[in-house]
Amino acid sequence: MKLYSMSKYKVIRPLQPLHKKMASSQQPTSMENLPNDILLNILIRLPAKQLGQMRCVSKPWEFLLSQPSFVKSHLHRSTNNLNDEIFLVLPDGDYEDVFSVTAHFSRSPHLKVANFVKLPGIPSSALDKVIFFGSVNGLICFGFHTYHHSDDFVIQIWNPSLSAVLTVPPCDCIHDLDFLHFRFGYDPKTDDYKLVKLMNCSQRSFGTPKDNVVSLNRYFITDAQDLVKVEVYSMRKGSWKLITNRLPSHVRVLSDAETICTDGHDGHLHWFGNDFGVGSQKTIVSFDFGVESFGEIRLPDSKTKYHPRRWLRLGVYNGKLCVTAMNVFKYEVWVMNEYGVTDSWVKMHVFFNYRGDMKPYGFTSNNKFLFRINTRVRLDFKDPTAGKVESFVIRDGGDPELGDENCSIY
Amino acid sequence: MSKKTLTLMSKDKQLFNIEEHLAVQSVTIRNMVKEDGASSVIPLPRVDSETLALVIEYLNRQQAPEEDEDYVKKFVDERGEIPTLLELAQAALDLDIKKLMDAACMKVADLIKDFTLEEVREALRIENDRTPEEEKAIRDEFQWAF
């Protein structure tokens, strides 16, 4: 009978029947005797943080938990689990400059973010120069200078659950960060994680101090189209590839500063694009990971005009591309119901009357609005439908630290 | 016409009867019935009689399909002790009853979710096979988790 063949159960130890439950108080029931199928079925449901601890349980557990297949399935599960933890990337403890916020609604919304993760393997001299390129499905991509060598710019993709760090192979022409821009994302069609690199080869400086690496990633001057070189790194292939497709020709500036991490939106990256002049028009520039080409999406008509006092933020709401438009007292959330169709923009929500300076970050995966008010150590949720606000506190930290992992994109 | 009945035998040689159309919720039994008609007794050498009785109770449930999810959850909730659940999971694995196995595993995961390392070891009676130094090395590597 096939049923009882040992080979069916990839076991670490020979299978033995479990002790009868009557005897279990005297005779220990040991999970070490459990088939891996059961053990994995249980462990995959545990939060990543606890799994980090569980590696200590025993050697067979550590072996199981470090299997790439397990980590992948766990990642996949967490991504689809709406009841997971909040994840924030906070460079240098400065919440003004949250580069990318990736979040799952917390199981306990009033949680204190008690667990911080230090980025692995970064020389302390480089810590304040870490640039985040994005975070998808719990993988975090960042780059930093080692300072051993002026050309040494290291890009890594980190999986906190696995404690694995992948160093991206060096790419072409990385000698001057003023002219570089990176974004990290996921392509669901090929199940691949990709990093897009834009490089302006014109070598003209736009007045950005060279040593201020962090700010360099926020705006990218596209300048003359022909001089912009685009490369894409595929984690699956493990290599960089030159992309010949060009950015929309009238777009002169890509801005990342107002962008919530939108990399998760069905295999697309998004930036705001500007034509960089008086009365300039704003637009959305997209990059499709599947076909590896750029596109353009028009903003709602009322939002296309550039205005210094009105900010826009890109995000994803309910799986759809959204724009949060900030005025002095109100925040409008526009949602693009049909991807790429300008006519499908709908004003979904308007939030009024928040005391103080409210800074929206975007929406969590179950459509809670995440924002900060005034203080640096407080973030609030608003569930637009329920109209209630929940808040949690972030510990003030010194180094670039990360909150609970186990994350996904909006 | 009477419905066809199968006989399952537990590890401790107890016999359980179950109607074939209910028993074939188990993919294992379904395959056996397909292959050889399974007219004789089906031995389940890793499932004790108490667990098998639970499995039979589960297979005999008379639930509308739309209430089935809730029923499975409630079923394992009522047997909320880890050793029982693990045996149930093991039986469900052998018999290939996915829903039951998933529900049992989910319940165990729920129970141990907030456990510390030591509590998990104690609850599941796992022996620490590491030296304090080895454990410290892992704790250092996974500092964020502790």
The level of helicity of chain B is: 55-70%
What oligomerization state is this entry in? heterodimer
Topology of chain B as a string of helices (H) and strands (E): EEHHEHHHHHH
Q: What's the end-to-end separation of chain A, in Å? A: 48 Å
Largest interface: chains, residues each: A-B, 49 and 49 residues
Q: Which of globular, elongated, flat, extended, rod-shaped describes the shape of chain A?
A: globular
Overall radius of gyration of chain A: 23 Å
- Level of helix content of chain A? under 10%
Total number of strands of chain B: 3
Portion in beta strands of chain B: 5-15%
- Counted beta strands of chain A: 26
Poorly predicted regions of chain A are 1-32, 82-86, 89-118, 204-217, 257-264, 375-379, 393-410
Low-confidence residue ranges of chain B? none
Query: Sheet bearing the most strands of chain A, described?
Result: 5 strands, mixed
Structural class category of chain A:
mainly beta
Query: Mean of residue pLDDT of chain B?
Result: 85
Number of helices, counting only DSSP H or I runs of 4 residues or more of chain A: 5
Radius of gyration of chain B: 19 Å
Mean pLDDT of chain A: 63
InterPro entries (chain A): F-box-assoc_dom_typ3, F-box-assoc_interact_dom, F-box-like_dom_sf, F-box_dom, Gal_Oxase/kelch_b-propeller, SCF_F-box_component
Pfam families (chain A): F-box (PF00646), FBA_3 (PF08268)
Domain F-box (chain A): 28-74
Organism (chain A): Centaurea solstitialis (yellow star-thistle)
List the helices and strands and how they pair.
The complex is a heterodimer of chains A (410) and B (146).
Chain A: H1 36-43, H2 48-54, H3 59-65, H4 68-80, E1 86-90, E2 101-103, E3 112-113, E4 117-118, E5 131-136, E6 139-145, E7 153-159, E8 164-167, E9 180-187, E10 192-200, H5 213-216, E11 219-221, E12 228-234, E13 239-243, E14 253-255, E15 268-274, E16 282-288, E17 293-297, E18 311-317, E19 320-326, E20 330-336, E21 345-352, E22 358-363, E23 369-373, E24 378-383, E25 388-394, E26 401-402
Parallel strand pairs in A: 3-25
Antiparallel strand pairs in A: 1-2, 1-26, 4-26, 5-6, 6-7, 7-8, 9-10, 10-12, 11-14, 12-13, 14-15, 15-16, 16-17, 18-19, 19-20, 20-21, 22-23, 23-24, 24-25
Chain B: E1 5-9, E2 15-19, H1 20-23, H2 27-36, E3 42-43, H3 49-59, H4 68-78, H5 82-95, H6 98-112, H7 117-124, H8 132-141
Parallel strand pairs in B: 1-3
Antiparallel strand pairs in B: 1-2
Helix pairs in contact in B: 3-5, 4-6, 5-6
Family (chain B): Belongs to the SKP1 family.
Subunit structure (chain B): Part of a SCF (SKP1-cullin-F-box) protein ligase complex.
Protein name (chain B): SKP1-like protein
